[in-house]
Fold 3'-5' RNA exonuclease complex component.
Amino acid sequence: MSEEDAANLGFSSEQQERRRIWLTKVAGYRAFREKMVSVDSLLDQLDHDRAAAENTETGLGEQSVEDPVLEDDDREFERLIRQSWRLHDDDVSKHVGKRSGAGKSPTGKRMYHTTRTASEAKAADKKDNLHRTAFEFLDRNTRIVKPSPGKTTPGKAAPGKAAEKAGSPAKRRSLITRADLPTRDELRRHCEQNRIKQDQMHVPIDKTVYTGDIIELRQVMKVDETPFGAGVVTAGVIQKTTGRFHFNALLANNLVLGGRETRLGFVAPGALFDPELMRISGVSSSDIDRVLEYAQELRDYEAEHGHESLVSAYEAMQLQVAQNQSQQASVTTSASDPESDIRAAGVVDEDSSDMRGDIGSVTTNGSTAEDGSEPITMVLLRTIPRTVRMFQQRAEQLLRSHYRELGEYWNMALARGQRTVTVDTLAELIFGSDDGSPVSDEARYAAYMHLLSDSLHFIPDHLALFVTGSFELRPRKAVEEIEGVRDMIRDNAPEFAQFVDKARALVAFAHKQNPTSPLRTALDPTRESFEASRTCRLTGWAAKDEIFERRPPPADVMTAAEAAVVEFSRTDQLFIGVLRQYVFYHNAGYRMGANPYDALVAPVIKKMHYYAGCDVISVSRFLVDLGVWPHWFNPKLNTRTLPFGSLGTNKDLYTVRGAADLSARLFLEDPAVTATRSERETRVHRGLLETATKTTPPVRDSLVTRDSAGVAIIDKTKFYGRDICEEIRHDFGDLPVYTIDDSATRDVDDGVSIETVVGADGQPQTWVHVHIADPTAFVHPGHLVAESAQQQGVTLYYAERQQYMLPYNLTVQKLSLVRRADGSAVNTMTASVLLGADGEIVDYKVRPALVRNLLAVPYSSVDQVLSYEWAPKGLETFEKVQENYRNGSLVHPFKLQPEDWIKYGENTPPPSPTDAEALRTIQRLVRRHYELRVRNGSFTKLNTERSFSVGVRNLPSPAHNITGPAFIAANSTRPQEFPQLRSHHGIGVNSPAHAMVGELMLIAGRAFARFATEHDSVPLLFRVQQPPNLDVLSGGIPGLPSALADELTAEQAMSARDVWEAVGRRARASDGIISMKLFDEVRHMMNPSVFSPKPGPQTIMGVVGASGYTRATSPIRRFDDMVGHWQVKAQLLREHTRAGDATPWYWSLDDMERLAPDVFRRNLLADQCMTLNEDFWSLTLMRRMEIQARRGQLMLPPAEFYDANSPLYYDLPWPYYDPAKPGALTWTAVVDNRDESRPFMSLLIHGLGVRAMLLPRPVDPACLPFAGTKLRVQVMAIDPAESVLIVKLAPEAFQPPETPKFWCSQHASSRLMTRYPMTYSPPENM
């Protein structure tokens, strides 16, 4: 940050000076930790500092601003270094002989390292007198266990007397032997407690921060730096946004920061209101009384309203700017508008979705004292930074005084077989007292800082660290590999030089072999076109980027024959493994700690001279050029919990998955084949199953885990010997069952049928049966297949392949609802419902069943016979549905296959008249249920479907063991080099067939939920979305136009209740469908939809009954659906057999409370992975088209393919492209939301469904267009690997006439482009 930027942000001169001091300390800390400066060099630096200080005192010199003299109370960093020097001088002096020659380093783990030799150590002894003061300081400030009189250390003689008798001077003992390390018993108890806590950990989904908490926030805004990494801030929460995971916090430097809980690492609950902490922070007694009084008012308000808020974020920022302006009075003479300063300061997290003052009139509840004294807001803004600073200083003091015990913990815990540790258990071990009293929040924060800063030895939970506080201990082998690579790079070992030479040759060959690859080609061919593409004509704004001058390939590049025989040595594989792990940790959401491979990447990448930086984009491209990865490989899909690809991950996941597949294969195998298997192969199979058994929890007793006799617990490698529900299965005979899905689907998991019977009153009743695949007829909940399914959570549908949750062969042969060739029955779990005239469920049944007459009818067939009476706008007829699918598609390259010419439904005949009438009857029945939900408040925006397919299925993936450049010789003529890509994005998912199936699934889920609540409260994973708290939310932001201005007054538009009710009225009038414009008005009010062990409302779905809703219709695709089936079956068996089991279920209510967060996060992660996959391929297609279009090489589609008379055609780029005039393509996009906190506008690209950032955006938020506004844009930057797409406005002639001319207003400058450079390759003709 420059001095000008600091002044603009309101830093006083004193604050700027302290920041420079801190950055100086950071630089020294990193040099000490990463570069391993020798002890003598550090001692010399101490002498230099002392001499500089003496010169300053005598007037002989002036201390540089960049190297300031620190005050006594600001020398924490120097103390830490001096302590480390002393400790290691003592350690090395005991091993001088070993370090003089080729001997190894002293045994035992060293947290810090020295490079002194024996001769240097002797010379250093002469400096002892010069540093006596530092040693005395260490003796006073280091925790040392003083031996009691008369006691000696086991195995050693008592010091002192023996030395005196020998007549030799007393030697200094190593502080390692005197450090206050945990005893064996303490460590054993710690490991046991940690395992118990891990097994019984209850991680609530809705755990959140509250006003008054002190938090540590990462990767939000780099306004501060600490020795633990950039972008780390400690702050106090001043305002929590109801219904969302957003909050506002006040930093120690008085900046207000917006954040999200996904960026949190640590929380100290209520620490801001701790009177003792405020007192030692220097807060006056009167201010403490005021804060505590307000805190009590806040708690009372929370008890009444279920929400708390300290101050309005908007008000807090206005007050902050007022403070900053007064501080800047001596720097600048011009005063600016506070609101514009807030926006210019950029104090808002770019990823936050809301910075609204959500408390409305509640803010004034305690803002001003009744006696007219100073507003409480000003008191808080004065006291909170002090409290936060003191909290951080106390934690750092604990960290310094116990750093030796913390530094040795990894070694000791790993030796005990421990694999994970939590912040709380480590704090109890290191800082806990003997009386068992709880450790302080400062101690917890110190433990957290140690675990997070030592990224070499500890891996944080990247999903919810602030919730779990859990860290994984990195295996010793992985640590040794990192240290080995680091040593080779530092010493410039021959192995490293050989790898660099080999890599240079391979990269040069790759670039020369295929210089026009889209991965290496710039978007623009010339400098002029490059600069033009970075300038927006409508606004005059231009992006500023540095052009990287890539070194041209050498003339003597290796031949293809030479490249084909290149092999990677063992050390080569180590370097490659480090680079892959670097990308892996970046992609795994490694936002909570430093990437341990950071320092190992730059020395490799910089020596290639082909890449502009040393970030993840450059490393990914280097691995592609090296032939390790193919260019189509998407590294974003690799995570620690959902492995997909070649990057390293938890090996236990692969072991369990392999064992699950093996057990399924053995189960399906012909006995004749089993008999011919060799003894060796049988032994290998047995070994894999035994290994997986040891790494998974034991099978628990329940009615669904007992053997055929109903006594013993079934083995986790065995499937059911018989159908445990055989006696209670209902046989539906030849009743037609319609399985409605895509024609290519193999894992069909649901079907529907109707049946008319005579009721008890003698009247006919029409029942709707939803038949669901039944994997639990074969798999018990303790089986390895079930364990593997829980680890993955869902089936992952990627464009290039699928990763099934259950073994594929088991799914296709035994589970999928398809007609069997021999006419045999298929097991199902069936939910049957009787719907009343008002749409409510009058009666229901949930039972195991058998079906035979399975009829596969694709969506396209069903859409031809259903009624379009209730179809949304744009889909009023079947022809409109066909038009939507065709004109919402993009293909590249446009070399069409015969199937591409087939319109939606042309190759699928309609059902027979009898089946068609049955389907229409089902449609009319479920329509009643939909109308009921709309009356109950359900509404949604019109859904858009995005699908993507790759011309070559099952593209080869990179291997785990890289022995050579497997993909370096891939020629561009091979089909997998540039496979044909097909994308569709439109509203076809709202067709009558899709709408009917979706409603059926919801009805079945409600039936399962009613069964659970009405039968002994069976524990299930319910889907719950609580209604918004309309009493504390605000409807809008003052000064911004409202989408309901034609219905609500300005005052009503600020009321959340009025806005919510108005949107609800419009939804009911439009059949539950609202526009994006209206949806954006209530987006911030909605609570998240989560899993819960107890039923609750599903507000947005209009499910308001006491029984709630659960998912149960996709058990071969979702693990939570399987859980529901097991639980319901256990209850049915209990009722049928009259078993005496008090808890017949596999999961109790307590188990469900622990299972719900895990399932929720795995589902969330799976959705993110599938979205990233679609984004990757959509942006890949877009980039290919842009490269060719800007060179006039893009092939136009056949004239007959699109319907040029359809308005949808003009939302594609083709009407605006002329091959004779090469240039950027013009894309149609819609505004996704009107978020005034971001420095860009968020858009959705038509035809691809990918998000884009529009730059620049208007300075005045009132000029932002409403969500749903259609725009035409052109690409400035695109990177598929990072899912980045930055666009500008297309010329005004291309803009839709109905689009407001918001570009005529003043636009804000943005530095976002420097974070996402367009390309790392220069234009060809520069």
Observations:
- The two ends are 32 Å apart (CA to CA).
- The longest helix spans residues 1149-1189.
